[in-house]
Structure formats: C-alpha cells, structure tokens
Amino acid sequence: MLDNPIWHALKTRHLRVALGGDLARRYPPEIAPFVAIARVGEGAGQSLAALVQPGERVGILHLMPEITAEWQEQHTIGICQYAWPEESQARSDGEVVRLGEEHIQAMLDLTKLVYPAYFRTGTARLGDYFGVLDGERLCAMAGIRMSFDGHQELSAICTDPDYRGQGFAAMLTLHIVRHIQDQGDIPFLHTEEDNRPARSLYEKLGFKLRTVLPFRVMQRL
C-alpha cells in the first residue's frame, strides 16, 4: 500500500472525502491537490480527467495514467518515502499543543511561508495536528495527512524562519511518531529527493528510507 498511498488513503480512512470511483480518485481541491489511480491502463487517465477542472494542476505519486489529450505534464521530481522501524519506540519531550479549528488561519499563514501549494484550508481536518506556540503566534507545526490501514503519514513539518534552530521540527516529529505508534500504526513521511536538510533530520531521528517515487504535477487542459 505504501507504493500507492494516496489511492489507499482515499479508498479506506479518507473514503468520506474521496471523489471518484474504481479507477481514479482525488481529494477535494480545498483539502489537497492530490489524485491517484488504482492501476495503470483501463481508461484511468480519462477517469481522472473527469475529476479535474480545466486549467487545474494536481499531483500524482508513482502510478501514472496514460497521457491523453486532456493532460499536460508540468514537471516531475523524486520523492523519498521514509518509514519508521516497527521495532523502534519513539520518545519525545517538550511542550506541544494540539491544533484545532481556531488555529487554521495561523496554520495557513505558516505553511504559506515554508510549505506552499500542498497545505490548504481543509488539510488539517484529515488528521491530528500539533504545534508550538509563542504566545498566540504559531512558530512550528506538524501533523498527519494520509492515513490507511496500518499506516499514517506525517506532513507539514515546518518552522517559522524566526524560530529555526530551536529543535521544534525534531520535537514535533517525534511527538507525532509516538502519537501514531500509540494507535498501533506505522509512521511514514515524504520529502523531496534533493531536500538534504530534511532528509538528514529524518534519518538522524530514526526514519529509514524505503524507496524513491516519482511525483508528477499534471495540468488538465
């Protein structure tokens, strides 16, 4: 399932928000710009095109539909998929708070600084999100995005530039790893192949590189 996580999330724990059917599914645009297909071929490209508005850009991980006249590929990057070893128990220390509806605007403001495009108004409603506050200012955050049987994905791990170097990203990452483990699931996450600072942090904390998957940004013509 980790080879096609968007599809399996939309087919299981995120079925309540999924748009589409047996061949192609997507998150609503206000939640995330991610789409997925069940398998290559069998008209998946046309089924996917029916879910995307003309001019809209969406991201698809690994499994790619046939390129039809409805689609134009914008660019492709390598995405490193890391998983937490099942036998390793995470420990975390520090003050974190659970983020709720009253923090949505602050979360959007923070991610706009350092995590553009993929975090939207409804993203935080997919799973639990935690943060570090300085008074009323959100200075770091992280949460859970994709989720399917046995696995939950860490996402939006980011820190306000004014608060970098204080260990907030590591603290929040370990807090969420333990939070996921307490639910009996395996934590995993994604980051760009060329994002060496993030990769170095995750490997230092204990994540193991599972694979590198192609992530393509496609535009519906």
What does this protein structure show overall?
- The protein is of the alpha+beta class.
- The protein has two domains: 5-77, no CATH class; 82-214, Gcn5-related N-acetyltransferase (GNAT) (Aminopeptidase, 3-Layer(aba) Sandwich), CATH 3.40.630.30.
- 22% of the residues lie in helices and 34% in strands.
- The chain has five helices and eleven strands.
- The protein has helices at 5-11, 44-49, 104-114, 168-181, 196-205, and strands at residues 19-20, 24-26, 34-37, 57-61, 71-83, 97-98, 129-134, 137-148, 151-159, 186-192, 208-220.
- An eleven-stranded mixed sheet has the order 1-2-3-4-11-5-10-9-8-7-6.
- A hairpin with a 7-residue loop joins strand 2 (24-26) and strand 3 (34-37).
- The chain is globular and about 50 Å long.
- The mean pLDDT is 94.
